[in-house]
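Lab meeting minutes (informal)
Scribe: AK
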Amino acid sequence: MHYLRVVEEQGRYVASLSEAGLPTPARGEVLIRVTASGVNRADLSQIAGRYPPPPGESEILGLEVSGTLDETGEPVCALLAGGGHAECVAAPAGQVFPAPAGLDLVTAAGIPETFLTAFVNLIVEGGLQREATVLVHAGASGVGLAAIQIAKLSGARVVATTRSADKLKAIEAAGGDLAIDTAHRDFVAEIEKCWGRDAVDVVLDPVGASTVAGDLQVLKTAGRIVILSTMSGSETSLDLALLMKKRARIVGSTLRARSRAEKAAIVSRFKGEILPGFTSGALRVVVDAVFPVARAADAFQRMRENRNVGKILIAWRRD
């Protein structure tokens, strides 16, 4: 079996294929022959040595795949803690779900990490209710576009931010009611101008240090801010008096580090509550680019340079 090995040399990624034995599924695992794997920012952190896989999980990069079950040929998707950027992967059975009917299998690789991340942080951690208002930062990323769609599917009003004017149309196409270019406009002022003060029920924030104070300003009483990454840094100052006044909750969240049992429970809910949206047409995977394995380094570089709108995928084979 071949798998991707990616290193950084002089500011650019270099990818090569290494060889390993075919994974042997342990109890409770299934073998998947990978059709495509999704590139995520977590991959870049792992390459940099800042985000190792949980103990006992594969050291190979890759948190999501589509492919076919080795035993039955059934088309599936899988959420992983590692091992996805490879020809085959042994995946926990509870983290595997059917690929949506009518969706090509390469595109389906863009579902597991992004849509499950959006689901767990908006619905499970954020407690999103119908007719709520949601703020999504980095709205044109894979997770951002998934979050906008899930929020709209849940009956919410959505404002999303980006630092590139070129990405505003993607936010609007995904269903965003208000799209803000934060390179030129202050998101707090824009939200207050359009919807008034204290308008937001749930914030999905992968940016961190530079946005969390503003998140608190626009938050309603008893609202929630869910922090899922720290792209602008992990240390910031916060008005604790305002936090108490609003009875706000700031929730720290990760998906990769959760136990297999917890992930299986999340996937089970996702299958019932969200997955049918792909078949009905209410949800779609926004694909930025699909790279062949031979150009995998370009896929990682594209994400590092923040040029993507939606998912970057690596195609291992065409089914």
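Next up, CB showed the second protein from the same session:
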Amino acid sequence: MKRNVRNLGEAEPPGIALALGGGFARGFAHLGVLAVLEEHDIPIASITGTSIGSVLGAAYAGGMSIGDMLSLGRSTSFRTFGRWCVSRLGLATNERLGEMIRRCFPAQRFEQLDLPLAVVATDLRTGEPVVFRHGDLAEAIRASCAFPGLFEPVEFEGRCLSDGGLVAPVPTEAAMAMRGACVVGVSLEYYQWDGSAPTNIFQLVTRAVSAAQKHQEAIWKTHAAVLIEPQLSTFAWDDFGRAEEAMAAGVTATEKAMPRLRELLDQRMTSTIRLQLSDRK
């Protein structure tokens, strides 16, 4: 397939501003989303990512193919990106994630990417979102993926940073500030509430974060013109061996959303043409 990436210097009309949400192993559904967008020649003007969305968004924006990303996913395990350390601030460090990015990704800095990328993290000193658009990719992505309680926060550029999903489960608001007239949000589902109590510290933290995210849903959805929601309720956070299944769920959900996306892009194109014709008179 040929990817349809909007040239950085290209004028309007832009394509979509893609907002990729977090979700650990469920994130491989994003590959299915990207595959369908390529198949339908939907131009991507920019990508904004939270957590795993920032990882795959950076890989794609840097020129890595979907096939190569899937191959990398097949070989992924916790040891690929995490190392147990048991400090006062977390059970593990994700320094290995930075090493993987430096070893495997085509680009190492935002400025080297083929299309604009934004990475969202959370500043634990202020509680505010931090949106990275320039500089070192690996450290920004590590910060966005530093799930609280599991991974130590990342000290970067004078900030104490943690998972972007705390403030932007699906980073549609940050995507609005990027290139692209139509914001497309990809949500990887929150924790499926079944009435049971948590049985370990990781479940406790995960449910606490998911509860906060659940009540942010109405806010970030207002910024999405199109919402893609792969069905991933059977996937655990560490089901990295099911990358193909997650990707297939992304394909199904994106195909379902395609008529609405086409409609919005056609409307935008028509409006742009009318404006251009009016300006020539």
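CB comment: The two ends are 40 Å apart (CA to CA).
No objections, moving on.
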